[in-house]
Specification:
heterodimer; A: mainly beta; 7-stranded mixed β-sheet; 4-stranded antiparallel β-sheet; 11 strands; 53% strand; globular; B: mainly beta; 6-stranded mixed β-sheet; 3-stranded antiparallel β-sheet
């Protein structure tokens, strides 16, 4: 089955960028639709964006457009999420999660990566 | 954008039935998925396509969806069911989550 292993916790200063990785095993990245979801401390889940196989492109939630970039390295089956111009409100756990097109639920999820933005 | 509304909290005694609702405009026309999240852990899918259970999820978990409300039902609640639960749908604007419901087992 699919397993997702994410990179470790990060501490960044305001204005910096962070890049989180998500390594896929059990399947190849080309067989999956990878998405990213974040969760601020004590808050709910927030979809950030992901690959839409129907359009063949990555789509981003409007809130993050212009600030987030999601990429994939199919040679290593690793997905990346880079968030720029970080602010304190971006402090959150960032999860990668897969969607098996044409279904639209997330399963499985990575273990999460805590990104702390602090001066 | 599409909005999903969940009650912030639900409490239930062990052995009883818990019902967690997820409200949305004509949500009955969409496929609803539910996730369980325990403290410090990643979410886990417990119901997909309104009422189907992934392998490994107990039969005590069931779901329904009609009109403007989807419902996750947990029968014979156990202490280990205490967690946050989130509903989710796909909409033309993207993937949408409800605000989450904290289930407390008394």
């Amino acid at each position: 089955q699919v397993q997702l292993v994410q990179s470790g916790a990060e501490v960044k200063k305001p204005g910096a960028s962070v890049k989180v990785s998500c390594k896929v095993s059990g399947y190849t990245l080309t067989e999956l639709s990878m998405h990213w979801v974040r969760q601020a401390p004590g808050k709910g889940l927030e979809w950030m964006g992901g690959f839409d196989p129907e359009d063949g492109e990555t789509i981003y939630a409007q809130k993050f457009q212009g600030r987030v970039t999601m990429t994939e390295d199919t040679s290593t089956d690793t997905a990346y999420m880079e968030l720029s111009s970080l602010r304190s409100e971006d402090t959150a756990v960032y999860y990668c999660a897969t969607v098996a097109y044409p279904q639209n639920w997330f399963d499985p999820w990575g273990q999460g990566t805590l990104v702390t933005v602090s001066s | 954008s599409y909005v999903l509304t969940q009650p912030p909290s639900v409490s239930v005694a062990p052995g009883k039935t818990a019902r967690i609702t997820c409200g949305g405009n004509n949500i009955g026309s969409k496929s609803v998925h539910w996730y369980q999240q325990k403290p410090g852990q990643a979410p886990v899918l417990v119901i997909y396509d309104d009422s189907d259970r992934p392998s490994g999820i107990p039969e005590r978990f069931s779901g329904s969806n009609s009109g403007n409300t989807a419902t996750l039902t947990i029968s014979r609640v156990e202490a280990g069911d205490e967690a946050d639960y989130y509903c989710q749908v796909w909409d033309s604007s993207g993937w949408v989550f409800g605000g989450g419901t904290k289930l407390t087992v008394l």
